[in-house]
Design a protein that fits this description.
Blueprint: E1 4-10, H1 17-25, E2 32-39, H2 45-55, E3 59-64, H3 69-79, E4 84-87, E5 93-94, H4 98-108, E6 113-121, E7 127-130, E8 136-138, H5 140-152, E9 168-171, H6 172-177, H7 188-199, E10 203-214, H8 228-246, H9 255-271, H10 281-293, H11 295-303, H12 311-321, H13 325-339
Parallel strand pairs: 1-2, 1-4, 2-3, 6-10
Antiparallel strand pairs: 4-9, 5-10, 6-7, 6-9, 8-10
Helix pairs in contact: 5-7, 7-8, 8-9, 9-10, 9-11, 10-13
Length: 341
Amino acid sequence: MAEISVIIPVYQAEPFLKTCLDSVVHQTFEDWELLLIDDGSRDRSGDICEEYKARDSRIRVFHQANAGVSAARNRGLSEAAAPHVAFLDADDSWEPEMLETLLTLCREHNADTAACGVTLWEADGSSRTEAPLKAGTLDAAGIRQQILLPLMGQRLCPPIFNGYIVRYLFDRQRLETEKLRFYGGYLEDELFLLEYFRTAERVAVTEKSLYHYMQNPASATHRYMKDFPGVFRAFMERKTAFAEKAGLTEITPDWRENSQWAGLLIAVGNVYAPGNPDPAYAAKRREVKALCALPEYRSCMEKLRPVHMGRRKQLVAELLLRRQFRLLGLLYRVKNAKRGA
């Protein structure tokens, strides 16, 4: 049996899939199994998966009708057999020592989980490294303070603790004991991490960046999403249930307003996303105005005034608070024109 199960959901990934798969095949640690979940790709992604499977007995391929990234990852979890689990996205890649470093950390520190830094690459070739956890180990109290509370509460002001599951090596027994799976098609990573780290006992950390995260404009986090308010409402329901179960509502009393504001900013960006089928900016202004009238967003705007955010987010928040919807539309029109949308 392999030591690590690597799960990659694959959908329309033909341009970058070989780079991703090569980064697994060329790992310095070789005792892994690779589970490729072809989620109904219409390009050559499925064929590429089969080509790699034919060359390496450690690779297994599963083809399914398109059901979304959560369903694809869940299929991978149901097929995984190794004691440890790592996730990799099909448009990203690893440093050659990724698996070896994380597994060594777990073994040397008797940890159930290991974490590393991530390099975020923009489409223009620029990059920055994100390593929110300091090198060392976290016990249960440290996990609560440095992972759970940042994930629950501060979602507006930098530095934001992003919910990247790809930076971790997970304990599969804990995943199965807690019956952890992914739900929904947006912010599913954040909910998964909250549930996992609620019971995790020890995390070993390296600040070294071992994961290359490509900011892909075609990914689910960048393209237009129909009925985003409904999707985000379902996310908040699950997050509320978690907060109550974990006893975090009193420790982070403004977490709900903080999260709703983050959702509102994302919702506004979604309205002006290039993929929005309604091209009329007047219609988009009306949609943003309607968003601000929704009870959950109206409440957070009344109770919390965000400060110390990034310049662009701060400007959008101020325009929303002042109901300057026409100026807001102009801001996004200029932004989209610069992107060539």
